[in-house]
């Protein structure tokens, strides 16, 4: 077994252990015997309900969202050739935010189940607009034009969001709840709504990996190897939109994950995206769950949402990564 294959196996084992910890640890203390009872022989007791109705859906959503954001971040950095890029650079996050605010302000939507589809639609529209703007001209889409278009569209949408929430208190309150980034309070119904899109995004990402390897050598070299650059970039944008759009719609914006995880994955795998993507997926899932567990423990009996914990843990860690120059080269 090769070194990278063995590393994937270790990550799978570590993720399984973190999943068990996520089910066992929480603001409400449940002994291990109670966790076992809730998993395999439930009788409807309070501890069983907490394990089966709250912690298991939360853990599953954390795994799926972590995988999506980790892979989306790796694709984003690869296609923009920007080590500081995160999935939000294509306007996906801000598009979802604007759609959520508009759904509350114009249509009075007040529930997560109600505006999850608005968030996903907003993410899709924003990414399409960015791609069209970045593709304008004879040269077609390039890392620079996509990044510039994404920054412009994100700034516009962020300004519109700020204007709306300042005008309407209900929009402000609901937007603050969504914007914090959380996997708590979501049931399996939310996961079921976005799971088909996330699975489709992972399939497209896997198909995009060989072409992305060629693009990392430069567009001219990629063309000489027979790679259709425009189609490869289009597939990458589609995968990023499906993965990040679905994750953001379900949980709100969770920062730093898509920024930090690809660097860690690349440190173990090297520049081959056929290995970077699965490593980033497992690392992203594990990091989301670890941050969520930490948020349950540090403020007992209250909780700190996973988006806040990842920002607190991710910022100093990313500063450390930036200082190690070999980790930020793409």
Automatic annotation (TrEMBL):
One Gene Ontology molecular-function label: transmembrane transporter activity
Topology versus the membrane: Multi-pass membrane protein
Principal location: membrane
Any one GO cellular component localisation term in the record: plasma membrane
Keyword set, alphabetical order: Cell membrane, Membrane, Transmembrane, Transmembrane helix, Transport
Keyword hit for Transmembrane: yes
GO biological process, one term: siderophore-iron import into cell
UniProt cross-references to Gene3D superfamilies, sorted A to Z: ABC transporter involved in vitamin B12 uptake, BtuC
Subcellular compartments: Cell membrane
Alphabetical list of InterPro entries matching this protein: ABC_BtuC-like, ABC_transptr_permease_BtuC
Residue ranges crossing the lipid bilayer per the database entry: 56-76, 88-109, 115-134, 146-167, 194-215, 235-256, 276-294, 306-323
Family stated for the protein in its record: Belongs to the binding-protein-dependent transport system permease family. FecCD subfamily.
PANTHER family with a match to the protein in the record: FE(3+) DICITRATE TRANSPORT SYSTEM PERMEASE PROTEIN FECC-RELATED, FERRIC ENTEROBACTIN TRANSPORT SYSTEM PERMEASE PROTEIN
Protein name per UniProt: Iron complex transport system permease protein
Native source organism of the sequence: Lentzea xinjiangensis
